[in-house]
Amino acid sequence: QVQLVESGGGLVQPGGSLRLSCAASGSIFSINAMGWHRQAPGKERELVASITNVHSTNYADSVKGRFTISINNAKNTLYLQMNSLKPEDTGVYYCNLIERLWNDVLVPRWGQGTQVTVSS
User: What 8-state DSSP symbol labels residue 1?
Assistant: First the structure.
């Protein structure tokens, strides 16, 4: 069974930077894609960034140019480099992994989330 553990969240001043990590463990047949979602209090969870198994990336308009998603396939670890952070970036960030099973079924996996707070 796949387990995702996020780390790197915390409190940062506006304009600062954080790097989030998501380590995947357990038996993974194949990773189809991974991504980061975030959820602010009282708001819906939204996609922040995603990356496919061929390293194609996609970003929400609100973070484009400031955030960079990357993956180390050998380590099954996902990263999100966040620069020029704004208060509106505050929220719980969730790691997501789309696993391709042996029978080609795609199954989403979720981490527990890590809190990111951008405030003065």
Answer: -
* Nearest-angstrom CA–CA distance, 18 and 106: 30
Q: How many other CB atoms are found less than 10 A from the CB of residue 60?
A: 15
pLDDT value at residue 55: 85
Cα–Cα distance between 19 and 100 in angstroms, integer? 26
Interatomic CA distance for residues 65 and 34, integer angstroms: 19
Closest CA to 91 of 18, 34, 3: 18
Q: How far is CA 99 from CA 25, 32, 77, 110, in A?
A: 12, 6, 13, 11
Angle 20-110-26 (CA atoms, 0-180°, nearest 5)? 90
Q: What is the pLDDT along the chain (120 residues), one digit of tens a residue?
A: 899 999 999 999 999 999 999 999 998 888 899 999 999 989 999 999 999 988 899 999 999 999 999 998 788 899 999 999 999 999 999 999 999 999 999 999 999 999 999 999
Distance CA 77, CA 47 (A): 18
